[in-house]
Write a structure and sequence with these properties.
This protein has 268 residues and is mainly alpha-helical. Helix content is 71%, strand content 3%. A two-stranded antiparallel ribbon has the order 1-2. Helix 7 packs across helix 8 and helix 10 runs antiparallel to helix 11. The longest helix has 29 residues. The chain starts with a helix and ends with a helix.
């Protein structure tokens, strides 16, 4: 699975590089046509900074590189470690590979992309995002004491859950926001799902610290908060100020989670 994830992430990096070469001339027009993306950065300084069409380009590239580098490091340090938490965290990291799909928005300015392909692409993007969120939640559930021998069954459950969430979402194929994500319905519901999943994930890791008697899980819980925060900033980046803080928070949270999990299983 790690090798398959690395292959997908590497393909996403190459796709992002090739697409960037094509869409850069169309970025100003794409930026003018976009609505403002919702996000943490926009809530605080959005009124002072206008959307920059090149910021999503940097965010997409950073997402693909994050997935590739993280999966390579996880494969190197955890390939022989029986740690279900790290497997599902690897699924979370791999989900960032699919952010390259956001290039579909500026590509519409160059090629006549049929609406059906746009809808399919956006649903795949939504699926990858919520599959990644549910995978991180599953990692926290394993840490809290979930005892399921067949991880394949859990994989199928979170796959079906992500499909159920995204299949009924109405999509406006004629518009997209300033992060190059198409406009979908039920935005408030999705925010509640993300916030609730974040809260439960953190609580599960904190419970693990108490039940297992390991303070490492407190840092892992803090790391999960940082990766959620960095993910939100990176996926909604539309200003020059957004990609770097989002990537830094994401990398810091990943470092906390992986190093602390490695320390926990090193002593088993």
């Amino acid at each position: 699975m790690f090798r398959a994830g690395i292959f997908i992430a590497a393909a996403a990096v190459l796709l992002a590089a090739a697409a960037a070469w094509v869409v850069i001339p169309a970025l100003p027009a794409a930026g003018e046509a976009a609505r403002r993306a919702p996000g943490i950065i926009q809530s605080f300084i959005g009124q002072f900074l206008e959307p920059n069409p090149y910021a999503p380009l940097a965010a997409i590239a950073a997402s693909a590189l994050y997935a590739l580098i993280t999966l390579i490091l996880i494969s190197y340090f955890f390939e022989k470690t029986q740690a279900p938490e790290i497997l599902f965290f690897a699924f979370f990291a791999a989900s960032f590979s699919f952010e390259a799909i956001r290039f579909m928005a500026p590509l519409q300015q160059i090629f006549a992309v049929p609406p059906l392909y746009q809808v399919i692409a956006f649903r795949v993007l939504l699926f990858s995002r919520y599959f990644g969120i549910f995978a991180l939640f599953t990692a926290s559930a394993y840490a809290a004491g979930l005892e399921v021998q067949k991880q394949r069954d859990i994989f199928l459950i979170i796959t079906v859950a992500a499909l159920v969430v995204v299949m009924g979402v109405p999509i406006d194929v004629l518009s997209w926001d300033s992060s190059f994500s198409m406009i979908g319905g039920y935005t408030a519901m999705f925010r509640m799902i993300e916030a609730g999943t974040l809260l439960i994930t953190m609580v599960s890791f904190f419970i693990s610290a108490w039940t297992r008697g390991s303070r490492e899980y407190i840092l892992i819980g803090a790391g999960s908060f940082l990766v959620f925060l960095g993910r939100n900033i990176l996926l909604s980046a539309d200003t020059w100020l957004s990609p770097a803080p989002g990537l830094i928070l994401l990398a810091l949270g990943t470092w906390l989670i992986c190093t602390r999990l490695h320390h926990v299983y090193l002593w088993l």
